[in-house]
Each structure stands twice: as structure tokens, then as C-alpha cells.
């Protein structure tokens, strides 16, 4: 009896998992081209899946579930993402590297994406209030993990400490920031590191450009900047070439999208993004996007 109960539980778990993945895949196909998808294809997939399940009640339930999905009106799911302007990742109009990756990943799953921009600390509030569906670029921390569901990483940020070249600063790790003034973007995860450093004074601003200008004008000793974003800002504002990034980098963090765990579709949004991201990497589209911005960042 125990063995049979375990078998039934395993079959049910397997059924739910298969249905979840299959429904999201079908929804993507339907949203992209409902006219090209017909009931005969559904029946074929049903036969394949039910042969795998080998449990008659599950066959019937799966068949009914698939017919309901296909017979319903196909609606394109729309999600709204947000972040502060952070060139070249996110420009003031929402375009940029992050936009390109997220749009491509969600498009492949039949999801429409809109990117909005506002100060980062404001975006975190909007996420909490569920006025946006996701933060488009987010670093994982234990504190955030309690309330936010994270995707697979889609990029890695290299964060360096920046100073004025005339200051002749001797940077040798986080402890070098003790008793110094550091310009930082309000709400960014590296604040947790700064809070752990003795007697560091943090000046919060809304953008990387503002951080760099604080250092350039000698109003702050250091700033923390993503290396690619720092190079991009120097290209746009030649006076910032008086600043230098110290190596090795202070932090290397993977970049994710994040959805409020209280969002009713949180797991679906994350799972479908992950599936889209995997597809981008398989087709080579992801590598093309990264190469585009890497080459632009290297041009001075």
C-alpha cells in the first residue's frame, strides 16, 4: 500500500510539472502565432505526454487541460519592468543592453515587455506596491531574497572603485575606503558592503553620472562603478577621463531580473524568462547582443 501511495504521489507530481512547462510553452506559441497552431497539434502533444504519464486519470486530465488552453482566446501577456537610467544597460528611454536581452527573452515566450525608468530607490517601492512587475536589473542579496524571486543570471557586473587620477589614491581592497567619502547610488546592493566598513561616509545620489561628477569635483574621494558603465560615461563626458578605475575590481556580481514574491504570476514570469534566456543562448542571439555592447564600450 505504501509503495502504491508513493507511486501515485510521484505520478501526480510528474503530471503537475509536465503540465506547468507545457502550458507555458503552448502559451508562447499561441501568443506568437495563434493562427498557425491548431487542435491537431495539441492532440499529438497530448498523446506523447500521456504515453509518458501511463496513468489513465492523468491522461484524461491532461487532455482536458490542453484543450481548454488552445480553445481559449489567446492573449499576449504583458509585463512592466523598471530601473533607473544606467547606460549602456538602460538608457533614459528604457533602451540598452538590458532592454535588448529582456525583450528578446520575453518575445520568444510570447510576452510583451515595457521598460520604465525612475530613480532606483523609487523602483524598489513600486515593485513592493506591485505597480511594476519586475526590476529589470538586480543583484541578489539575502535581504532581497526574502521578498523577491530572482531569475537565472543573464550578465555579470564588474564593480570597481573609481578615484580622481590626481588624488594618487592607493586602493587595496574594501578596507581602503575607511574614513573616506564614497558616492553611491541610493538603493544599490553594495550599500550592504559599505555599511560594514568602519567610518566610511556615503553620499547617496540617483545616478552613476552624479557619482562620477562628485569624484571629479573633489566632493567625494571615491565612487563605485560598473566597469562597462564607467567606460560608457567617460565616452560621453570627456572630462571624466580624469578618473581611473582601480583593479582588481571590488565586486563581481551576477545580474538578474527580480519579481515581488507576492505577485500572483511571479513564478510564471521568472520561469518563462529563464526559458527565453536559454533559447537566446542556444541560438546565439544572446552572444550577439553582448558583443554589440562590448564593442561599443571599447570604442573611445
TrEMBL record:
Q: What is the lineage of its organism?
A: Bacteria, Pseudomonadati, Pseudomonadota, Gammaproteobacteria, Alteromonadales
Which source organism? Pseudoalteromonas amylolytica
Protein family membership: Belongs to the bacterial solute-binding protein 3 family.
SUPFAM superfamilies tied to this protein? Periplasmic binding protein-like II (SSF53850)
Keyword annotations of the record: Signal
What protein name does the entry list? Solute-binding protein family 3/N-terminal domain-containing protein
Which domain of life, per UniProt?
Bacteria
Q: Where is the Solute-binding protein family 3/N-terminal domain?
A: 78-297
Report whether DNA damage shows up as a keyword of the record. Answer: no
* InterPro entries on file: Solute-binding_3/MltF_N
Amino acid at each position: 500500500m505504501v509503495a502504491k501511495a508513493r507511486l501515485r504521489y510521484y505520478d501526480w507530481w510528474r503530471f503537475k510539472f509536465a503540465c506547468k512547462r507545457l502550458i507555458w510553452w503552448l502559451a508562447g506559441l499561441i501568443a506568437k502565432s495563434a493562427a498557425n497552431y491548431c487542435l491537431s497539434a495539441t492532440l499529438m502533444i497530448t498523446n506523447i505526454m500521456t504515453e509518458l504519464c501511463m496513468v489513465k486519470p492523468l491522461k484524461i486530465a491532461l487532455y482536458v487541460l490542453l484543450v481548454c488552453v488552445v480553445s481559449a482566446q489567446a492573449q499576449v501577456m504583458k509585463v512592466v519592468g523598471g530601473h533607473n537610467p544606467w547606460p549602456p544597460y538602460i538608457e533614459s528611454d528604457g533602451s540598452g543592453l538590458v532592454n535588448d536581452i529582456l525583450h528578446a527573452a520575453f518575445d520568444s515566450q510570447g510576452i510583451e515587455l515595457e521598460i520604465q525608468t525612475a530613480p532606483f530607490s523609487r523602483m524598489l517601492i513600486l515593485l513592493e506596491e506591485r505597480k511594476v512587475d519586475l526590476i529589470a536589473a538586480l543583484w541578489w542579496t539575502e535581504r532581497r531574497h526574502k521578498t523577491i524571486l530572482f531569475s537565472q543570471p543573464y550578465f555579470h557586473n564588474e564593480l570597481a572603485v573609481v578615484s580622481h587620477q590626481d588624488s594618487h589614491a592607493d586602493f587595496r581592497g574594501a578596507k581602503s575606503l575607511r574614513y573616506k567619502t564614497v558616492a553611491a547610488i541610493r538603493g544599490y546592493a553594495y550599500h550592504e558592503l559599505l555599511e560594514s566598513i568602519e567610518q566610511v561616509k556615503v553620499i547617496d545620489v540617483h545616478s552613476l553620472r552624479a557619482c562620477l561628477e562628485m569624484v571629479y569635483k573633489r566632493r567625494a574621494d571615491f565612487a563605485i562603478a560598473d566597469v562597462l558603465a564607467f567606460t560608457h560615461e567617460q565616452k560621453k563626458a570627456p572630462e571624466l577621463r580624469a578618473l581611473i578605475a582601480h583593479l582588481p575590481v571590488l565586486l563581481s556580481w551576477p545580474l538578474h531580473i527580480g519579481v515581488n514574491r507576492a505577485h500572483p504570476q511571479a513564478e510564471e514570469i521568472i520561469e518563462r524568462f529563464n526559458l527565453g534566456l536559454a533559447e537566446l543562448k542556444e541560438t546565439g542571439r544572446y552572444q550577439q547582443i553582448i558583443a554589440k555592447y562590448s564593442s561599443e564600450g571599447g570604442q573611445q
